[in-house]
Write a structure and sequence with these properties.
The structure holds two protein chains of two kinds. Chain A folds into two domains: 45 residues, no CATH class; 235 residues, MetI-like fold (Orthogonal Bundle), CATH 1.10.3720. Chain A is 72% helix and 0% strand. Chain A has 14 helices and no strands. In chain A, helix 13 packs antiparallel against helix 14. The longest helix of chain A is centred in the first third of the chain and has 33 residues. Chain A is flat. Chain B is an all-alpha fold. Chain B has two domains: 56 residues, no CATH class; 226 residues, MetI-like fold. Chain B is globular, with a radius of gyration of 26 Å. Chains A and B meet through helix 2, helix 4, helix 5, helix 6 and helix 7 of A and helix 1, helix 2, helix 3, helix 4 and helix 5 of B.
């Protein structure tokens, strides 16, 4: 008994010495690690502590010492079942993301596949550059372009509509059209980026397969159908699965700059992130906003873990961890 | 001879089908490319239209009267504000990109070192932040209340320095540098920092270019941070936030706009400002695009 304690303490001492030795041998590493540790502690881990405020009636002057109110914030968010705030936000967030994932991927794959088959180098390069343009522009500018297109009095769309002899249409007062506009803008913004990723995946396919198909006289359509698309499937599945893992997160930038705080459209355009932003900057209800954020992070984590579990079963090499 | 003829007939047969394919493919790709660029042309054309024409007839794809009025008015009424916003944005972008490159490359370097014992733990420490986060409000409270960065441009710069994606992208790039190079430098007596500074940094220019572009794009296009930390500091507004304030139209159009100019900004003025805020990016990106592409491919390499 005594012997084993001595042995254990010796072991501990040994471990301690090794730690010191490691610290001394790689002192520089540890010093160079300071910015990373500091950054992620301050901007990622410290905010996690602040999630506690989801359970308080937040008071700016008291901070973390605001009165604890248990689950009251959540009760408020969940009140009303199908009419509850949280149900509306979750529904909008998930539906928009599903539409984004499906449409973006279909368009990106289609374009990547076509670009792969085109041999006109200059055309491929120029069109790729053109498609990449929206990716580089800030969402504020996108918002101003959208306003330029859709506003009631001078918008390009209304210009076209009146030229064709129809009545002016007030986009900013018609909630029904916004899901379409938002989805189209999202597809538009990510088109070049996604196409490049898929094109890179396609370029990774063994060239000799195409050459063999060429020798056998396969047409370009058949090459796409029997080579490119089947071989792209694994990449697609992985990308879509991880996109599904992020389905609780919204494109805050996009929604806020297109629609902003427009009360008329809020019912169909409010996602979790915009709700949180409004809680912070318009309503100053920090406790509620934090509760919605915690709900989002928590279910986001569960979703990613689930998706990763599925990916591990399907294809272990592509799992995240 | 026989081989030649089969090959010839083969190409002829392919040609008909190929031509149909190529024409439809070119058509579809062209339409997509135009769809992507058209909104910018509308913006450009709007900014060169005259205000009265827009008020009367609305925007059109091509200005009936080409005029620089909108730009002239922007500069005469907002001149100082715009120049100041440009300077702020440039300052934030340059400082943030430099600091971000330094911290990201240092972190990526350590995470790539096989002789750094805790690299897996540190990698998970970084990675975990992509799985779970405190979110917008807790982050705001840390920056504003704990770090006391309200009213300071550091509130924009610091939170954007590093992203897990960039750190891992850099690590993956360094993993491609043969370890024997590092070992031989070490035998020659170089310390860990010197290896990083004199060997790794010069060798990782492509990764630096890619990450530098990601960083500068993020800083240039940032408006969000200003809307949280610098609402009342007009002299510290960046370009995008200035534009954002001019565009805020729904709830507080009047109040917000009057902060900047006496009367509401006109329609063409908004577009001219939008052009000024995007101009440098649009001129620059065709040259920068290939670094993005190579970076995306690099980042998708798992490690």
């Amino acid at each position: 008994m005594a012997d084993s304690t001595v042995a254990a303490s010796e072991k501990a001492l040994h471990r301690k010495n090794r730690l010191v030795a490691d610290l001394q041998a790689h002192k520089t590493y540890y010093i160079m690690l300071v910015p990373l540790l500091l950054f992620f502690v301050l901007f990622s881990y410290l905010p996690m502590v602040g999630l506690y405020n989801a359970f308080t009636d937040y008071d700016f002057s008291k901070g973390l010492f605001s009165p604890f109110i248990g689950l009251k914030n959540f009760e408020f968010l969940f009140r009303g079942g199908m009419d509850s705030i949280i149900w509306k936000l979750t529904r909008n967030t998930i539906l928009y993301n599903v539409a984004f994932i499906v449409l973006s991927n279909v368009c990106q794959i289609a374009l990547a596949v076509l670009l792969r088959e085109l041999t006109y180098r200059k055309f491929v390069r120029v069109s790729q550059t053109m498609m990449f343009m929206p990716y580089f522009v800030s969402m504020v500018v996108v918002g101003s372009i959208a306003y330029n297109l859709f506003n009631f009095n001078y918008g390009v769309m209304n210009n076209v509509i009146t030229t064709l002899g129809f009545e002016r249409f007030d986009f900013y007062k018609t909630p029904e059209v916004w899901p379409f506009i938002i989805v189209i803008v999202e597809v538009w913004k990510g088109l070049g980026y996604g196409t490049v990723i898929y094109l890179a995946a396609i370029m990774g396919i063994d060239e000799s397969i195409y050459e063999a198909a060429y020798v056998d006289g396969a047409s370009k359509w058949n090459r796409i159908r029997y080579i490119t698309l089947p071989l792209l499937k694994p990449t697609l599945i992985i990308l879509v699965l991880f996109a599904v893992g992020g389905i609780m997160r919204g494109q805050f930038d996009l929604f806020w700059n297109l629609v902003g705080n427009n009360g008329l459209l809020l019912n169909v355009t409010d996602i979790i992130d915009t709700y949180v932003y409004r809680s912070l900057t318009v309503n100053f209800s920090m406790g509620l906003g934090t509760a919605a954020g915690l709900y989002q992070s928590f279910f986001g984590l569960i979703l990613i873990l689930t998706v990763n579990g599925i990916v591990r079963k399907v294809d272990k090499d592509n799992a995240l961890f | 001879m026989a081989r030649y003829s089969t090959k010839r007939s083969n190409t002829i047969r392919m040609d008909a089908g190929t031509r149909v394919f190529d024409i439809s493919a070119i058509l579809i790709v062209s339409l997509a490319a135009i769809f992507c660029v058209l909104p910018f042309l509308l913006m450009l054309s709007g900014s060169f239209s005259s205000e009265s024409e827009v008020i009367l007839k609305g925007y059109s794809l091509w200005p009936q009267v080409f005029t620089l009025d909108a730009y002239r008015i922007v500069f005469s009424t907002l001149g100082g504000t715009i120049v100041n916003a440009y300077l702020v944005t440039i300052y934030v972008t340059v400082t943030g990109t430099m600091l971000g490159l330094l911290t990201t490359s240092m972190s990526g370097y350590i995470l790539s070192r096989p002789d750094f014992k805790h690299r897996d733990k540190v990698a998970f420490f970084v990675y975990f932040t992509t799985l779970f986060s405190g979110g917008m409000i807790p982050t705001y409270l840390v920056v504003a209340n704990v770090l006391q960065l309200n009213h300071s441009l550091w509130a924009i710069i610091l939170p954007g320095l590093m992203t897990p994606f960039n750190v891992f992208l850099f690590r993956n790039f360094i993993k491609g540098i043969p370890n024997s190079l590092v070992e031989s430098a070490r035998i020659d007596g170089a310390g860990d920092f010197r290896i990083y500074w004199q060997l790794i940094v010069p060798l990782s220019k492509p990764a630096m270019a890619t990450i530098g572009l990601f960083l500068s794009l993020g800083y240039w296009n940032n408006w969000f941070g200003y809307s949280l930390y610098l609402i009342s500091d007009k002299d510290k507004w960046g370009l995008q936030y200035l534009l954002y304030r001019m565009l805020s139209r729904v709830t507080d159009a009047v109040r917000d706009s009057q902060v900047i100019v006496e009367q509401l900004p006109s329609e063409t003025m908004k577009l001219a400002t939008a052009m000024l805020a995007t101009g440098p990016v649009l001129l620059f990106y065709p040259f920068a695009q290939r670094y993005f592409v190579s970076g995306l491919v690099m980042g998708s390499v798992k490690g």
